[in-house]
Amino acid sequence: MTQRQVQPSLCLKTFALSVGRGETILAQDLSLSVPAGTGLLLRGPNGAGKSTLLFTLAGLLPALSGTVTLEGYDEDFGPAFHHCGHKNAIRPRLTVIESLQFWQAINGSAALTPVEALERVGLGRQAKSDAGYLSAGQQRRLALARLLVSARPVWLLDEPTSALDADGQKLLAGLITEHLASGGLAVIASHDAIAVENLAVLDLGGRV
Amino acid sequence: MSGFVSVLRRELSLSLRGGGEMLTLVLFFVIVGAIVPFAVGPDKVLLAGIAPGIVWIAAFLAMLMGLEKLFGPDRADGTLGLYRLADTPLSAVVAAKVIAHWLTAALPLILASPILALLLSMDLPTFWRTLVSLLIGTPALAGFGALGAALTVATRHGGLIAPILIAPLSMPVLIFGVGAISASGGPGQTGVATLLLAALSLMVVALTPFAAALAIDWGED
């Protein structure tokens, strides 16, 4: 499992990528290159196709045309993408720690233990409580902890700052910085400023 | 393998902590059986004759009611998308869900079937055969149900369409299920029906996780 972590030649590339929903093209002719250790910040008005692009990069939506490749990654190591979308995938009636253990079990580990990850995102004291009782910001933190318990080289974050307080935003920036420093890469869609170095910016607004 | 076990454990603890859902299914199962004597009259001979069919219809309908819970909540909260990106193959996730569905939506019905047997004045040998045929046949219903739920997961009101979609598929299960109980076909016939029912269940449970996983992968969004 450790092979999945650091590979210096890693590079997320798209070639002439068009993304959209159904027949509607939201962004077209995207040729991106995100090398390991850097991040890409997606900007653009609501409806510009930021989330759709992230879904397409993750392989959850088919590309309308063009290709997405992750160079320097051996598919045998398993899925390379963490996708953290608008929905936190948190279910009431399971405790916080159970939720996290579950995600580690099906996503593979070689990263922090669930307890360490909860401490890291500041939910250490809520570990035994029902995940449904968490506030929106705490649920967001739990979703971020999911990225920490399973090592994957590419993080795709969709509005990761939503519902996070100022401390949470600092925490997020810290997590992304660590992830990039360890040789990972990230594509982030956000309207907020994210205090991370090595972030290129792509403005999706008004491309079509 | 640990992923498979985790999904199974998660599904079971969600169902058990939900509490009411399982009880609702059991009550629905009992009520369907209980209204029959009122509809066809309290003729004990007639009731005993149609009892195997009634039990199977009640089980079939009750299992359909549980279908919406299979993938609906996972899709609503984004878990389904994450399953598609998980290390554990989607087919393994679906297989775990099919087993959990059987344990939470079929096994309670089978445990409650003595109540129906009493209400429908079944004799003891028929009841034992009913129990066996339910045990052997309901996994097929769970498998078909998962397929229907997977095909309609991305559709609005998928919970209503899935039963219509899988009803024709489930007919053989009902036919052989009831055939395995009724003594009218002669002793040899009953054995054949039981074997066919078992074959059907094995095949459906083995194949539907892959089919359902494909359906989810192609159908989502």
CATH superfamily of chain A: P-loop containing nucleotide triphosphate hydrolases
Helix content of chain B: over 70%
Return the average pLDDT of chain A rounded to an integer.
87
**What's the alpha carbon Rg of chain A, rounded to whole Å?**
17 Å
SSE series of chain B: HHHHHHHHH
Biggest sheet statistics of chain B: none
Written account of the structure:
In chain A, the strands form two sheets. Chain A has a five-stranded parallel sheet, with helices on both faces. In chain A, strands 1, 2, 3 and 5 form a four-stranded antiparallel sheet that branches. The longest helix of chain A is centred in the C-terminal third of the chain and has 16 residues, at 166-181. Chain A starts with 10 loop residues before the first strand and ends in a 5-residue tail after the last strand. Chain A contains five helices and nine strands; from the N terminus they run ββββαββαααβαββ. Chain A is 28% helix and 25% strand. Chain A is α/β, with parallel strands linked by helices and 208 residues long. Chain A has one domain (2-203): Rossmann fold (3-Layer(aba) Sandwich), CATH 3.40.50. By secondary structure, chain B is mostly helical. Chain B has one domain (2-219). Helix content of chain B is 85%, strand content 0%. Chain B has nine helices and no strands. Chain B has helices at 2-18, 20-40, 44-65, 68-76, 79-84, 90-119, 124-151, 158-179, 187-219. In chain B, α6 runs antiparallel to α7.
